[in-house]
Each structure stands twice: as structure tokens, then as C-alpha cells.
Write a structure and sequence with these properties.
The chain is α/β, with parallel strands linked by helices. The chain has three domains: 64 residues, Arc Repressor Mutant, subunit A (Orthogonal Bundle); 108 residues, Aspartate Aminotransferase, domain 1 (Alpha-Beta Complex); 223 residues, Type I PLP-dependent aspartate aminotransferase-like (Major domain) (Aspartate Aminotransferase, domain 2). The protein has 16 helices and 17 strands. The strands form five sheets. A seven-stranded mixed sheet has the order 5-13-12-11-10-6-7, with helices on both faces. Helix 10 links the parallel strand 10 and strand 11. The longest helix is centred in the last third of the chain and has 23 residues. The C terminus is likely disordered. It comes from Mesorhizobium australafricanum. Pfam families: Aminotran_1_2, GntR. In the C-terminal section; belongs to the class-I pyridoxal-phosphate-dependent aminotransferase family. GO terms for molecular function: transaminase activity.
Length: 457
């Protein structure tokens, strides 16, 4: 322990939009990370630090408060402030969790209580307290058919299945359509839930090459024949993580190739409601071989835990229902009932529209703050930032974590070892736009190699 105050870590507080108190915290985090400050080292008193930095005492007090919250420092009465021995706390600005932002102009928590009260008045409490095993009640399936009608004409109810979120329905598809050891084809960067699901169910994943329009049909044919695969997973609209919207032409090419190869298509479609005009879904283009999954989690809220599946036919829907009975048993009746109530009375559309407004505003904030070069739609919940450097995205994520930010590196989405270097930013989890601006300014400072970041990209 060094009881003498060490001032060699002090930052040069250059001009810029990032708040001064956060620049001080960043300097502390960097100094602790690179060993310039060691656990137990004592910091100067706040008044002395304010004098050395040429700032007011309030700024330093605010910086110390933030640093304590991140577990960077601690204070001992009568002795001073010291660098802590433990690891920093989890980042307090979350740019990794891909959830809808609080809908503009709506108080979603305030809508839940009257929604449930109204549901209880109009529904049988006994039914809500009972099991609803399998594909969902006839009413829930009918509501699901109406929601899915955004992609085409209303489906027959016997082709619709209700599940407790997209992951439960994807699990049911894999269990009903594949066997242990089978290979599923997907993009080289794909939804992490699929990666985890394949590992849990002992299925294999194989990457298919892509270009600026999305997955390449010629590479799909080669991969399918090479691996003997029968299932193709696609997230063609605002793809996670790259935010790509696959063109209609490419979709038609892939649909023809899937037909030629007799592939089952699993279309994961959580985001199309966030586009003013999404291209045709594979459910339209290849209905006889497509399992289409549409969750409410990304356009309304994950708390509802409700998603709908469109199967190629009634028999396939029954196989899905059997897999649900063997895994999650059913969708939660109360949450599913509330979701269906909001879908019937139009509130779901109102919430989705408000989420769209807020997502659009947050994308504009990102465009105004971040360096150019990222990929996103004007109303998507996330963006993809490619890295043109030798630094891997996992290393960048670690640097960001020490600066109080959580981002998602490419490694979290990778199928195999050959994948693009970059990271995903999710814009919805921060509580408000001001906090988002704060996080993006910090990230922009890292990306630009600002003093103290030690990073050149």
C-alpha cells in the first residue's frame, strides 16, 4: 500500500462534449487497468485534486461518487480515499442488452395494472389459473394469426402456435425437426440464442458466406451439400447483430435455393414491425417450408414473454405443440392473456409505434455522436460497428467495460472462427436519451483514440 498520494495518473482535461467528472473517472479506470494505480494507493484529497486539475470541488466530488459506485475507489474515515482491491462493478451504462427503449409518450408499467384488471374482468379467472398446454387456446391462436397477418393474409388457426417467447419456439422447432448431431446452417454472425440452443441440444452450426445483400445462395448450396444439412436459420430483417435488411431479390434467390435443396427455413423475425415497409417474409415466399417466429419482446416488451409461430401446415404445428409440452409446457396464461388483450384492443400497435419513435430518436443520437461507418436502420434497436484494425472486438469490449460501458463483441455472435471483426451496440437499455448520449460520447472517445484511451483504430 502506498500512503503517499500518487498524481502521475492525472488526466489532461481537454475540451469535448464528455462531462469533466466522467473524464476523471475514465482516467482512474485506465490508470488502475494499466497498473499506474495499484490496489491500496491513496488518492489526493478532493480539494487538492480539484486544484491540480483546475476544476471546481463539486466536479471532483461527483467523480469520486461515480468511481465509488463502479467499485474503483473507497474512502476510509480519517485516512483518505484509496484504490480498491476488487474488480470494477458491472458497467452502469448498458449498450449490450437488445431490448426496446421505453416507448415515447407512454408509461408502460402504468399500463400493466389496468390491463390485467381489464383482462380479469373479461376472462375467466379459473381459465387463467389453469394449464394451457400445447399450441395455445383457440382465442390466443386466432389473435396470433391476426398479428402474423402483417406478413401476409391471415393464416388458418391450426397453423399458428403460441409460445413463451421466441427462444421457446426455436427450441420446439429444433426438437421437432432435427436430431442430435444434425447441422443447422446460419450466418457467420448470428443470434447468440441460437448458438446456445444448438449447444444445449447437441446440434451443430455451420456458417454460410454472405455479401452486402446477405447470405449468398451459391455458398448456401455448397454448405448444405458439404454438411448434409436440412435446416436453414435466417434473421433477414434487421439481422442480429449486423442490422442488415436482406433485399427482396436475395430473399427470392434463397427461397428458390432452399426449395432446390429441400431445406426447412427457420425465419426469426423479431424486428420487422420496426420498419415502415419490410420486404416480404420467407413465410410469404416459401410458406410450404418456413417456420416463422415473431416475438413481442423486441417491439413491445420482453416482460410479456409471448411469441407466435406460423408452421407450414397443421401437422407441423402439432409436432411443435408436442415439443412445447415436453419442454416449457405452455406459454404463461396471464402474460399471454395480457398480450392478446393488448393486441385485440390496439394498444400493442400503439406501443410499437411509440417504440419506433423512440428507436428512431436514439439512432439519430448515435449518428450525431459516433464516428461514421456503422450499419443500422433509422429505427432499429441496435447498430453494427465494423473494426478496421488488428484489435479484436473482445479486447475493445474489455476496454469499454473498464470505462463503465457494456457492448457486445463479434465473438458473442460467431459461428466458427472466420467472422467479421466488429461489435454490436444496443440503444434501448439505457434509461433515457441523456444517459445514452453519455455512453456514446464515452465510446466515441475510445474509438477515436482520445488521450487516456490508449487505443488507435
Amino acid at each position: 500500500m502506498n500512503d503517499e498520494s500518487d498524481i502521475g495518473w492525472l488526466p489532461v482535461l481537454e475540451a469535448g462534449p464528455r462531462p469533466v467528472y466522467l473524464k476523471i473517472v475514465d482516467a482512474l479506470a485506465d490508470a488502475r487497468s494499466n497498473g499506474r494505480l495499484q490496489p491500496g494507493d491513496r488518492l489526493p484529497p478532493q480539494r487538492e485534486l480539484a486544484r491540480l486539475l483546475g476544476v471546481d470541488l463539486t466536479t471532483v466530488t461527483r467523480a469520486f461518487s461515480e468511481a465509488r459506485r463502479r467499485n474503483l475507489i473507497d474512502a476510509t474515515a480519517g485516512r483518505g480515499t484509496f484504490v480498491t482491491p476488487g474488480e470494477p462493478e458491472e458497467p452502469i451504462l448498458d449498450l449490450s442488452m437488445n431490448i426496446p427503449p421505453a416507448p415515447a409518450g407512454l408509461n408502460l408499467p402504468a399500463l400493466i395494472r389496468p390491463g390485467i384488471e381489464g383482462l380479469l374482468k373479461r376472462s375467466s379467472a379459473e381459465a387463467l389459473l389453469s394449464y394451457h398446454p400445447g399450441p395455445g387456446s383457440p382465442v390466443e391462436r386466432a389473435v396470433g394469426s391476426s398479428w402474423l397477418a402483417a406478413t401476409q393474409d391471415r393464416l388458418p388457426v391450426d397453423r399458428v402456435v403460441v409460445g413463451s417467447g421466441a427462444q421457446a419456439l426455436l427450441t420446439a422447432i429444433l426438437l421437432s425437426q432435427t436430431y442430435e448431431g444434425d447441422t443447422i446452417l446460419a450466418d457467420a454472425l448470428t443470434y447468440p440464442g441460437l448458438i446456445a440452443l444448438a449447444e444445449a441440444t447437441r446440434r451443430k452450426l455451420a456458417a454460410v458466406g454472405n455479401d452486402d445483400e446477405g447470405m449468398r445462395p451459391d455458398d448456401l448450396e455448397q454448405a448444405a451439400r458439404r454438411h448434409g444439412a436440412r435446416v436453414l436459420y435466417l434473421n433477414p430483417t434487421l439481422q442480429n447483430p449486423t442490422a442488415l435488411v436482406m433485399s427482396e431479390g436475395r430473399r427470392r434467390e434463397l427461397a428458390r435455393m432452399a426449395d432446390k435443396l429441400k431445406l426447412i427455413i427457420v425465419e426469426d423475425d423479431p424486428y420487422s414491425r420496426l420498419l415502415a415497409a419490410a420486404p416480404p417474409a420467407f413465410l410469404n415466399l416459401a410458406p410450404e417450408r418456413t417456420f416463422h417466429v415473431a416475438t413481442l419482446a423486441k417491439c413491445i416488451s420482453p416482460f410479456l414473454r409471448t411469441a407466435f409461430l406460423a408452421a407450414p401446415d397443421a401437422q407441423a404445428a402439432e409436432r411443435i405443440a408436442a415439443a412445447i409440452r415436453g419442454t416449457t409446457m405452455m406459454a404463461p396464461p396471464l402474460m399471454t392473456g395480457l398480450a392478446c388483450e393488448w393486441l385485440r384492443n390496439g394498444l400493442a400497435e400503439e406501443i410499437t409505434a411509440a417504440v419506433w419513435v423512440e428507436a428512431r430518436a436514439r439512432q439519430m443520437i448515435a449518428r450525431n455522436i459516433l464516428p461514421k461507418g456503422f450499419a443500422a436502420s433509422e429505427s432499429s434497436l441496435h447498430l453494427w460497428y465494423p473494426l478496421q484494425s488488428q484489435l479484436r472486438s473482445a479486447e475493445l469490449a474489455d476496454i469499454a467495460r473498464r470505462r463503465g460501458l457494456a457492448i457486445s463483441p463479434a465473438e458473442e455472435f460467431a459461428v466458427g472462427h472466420d467472422f467479421a471483426n466488429g461489435f454490436r451496440l444496443a440503444l434501448g437499455a439505457t434509461a433515457n436519451r441523456e444517459r445514452l448520449k453519455e455512453g456514446l460520447h464515452s465510446l466515441a472517445s475510445i474509438l477515436s483514440g482520445a488521450p487516456g484511451s490508449r487505443l488507435k483504430i
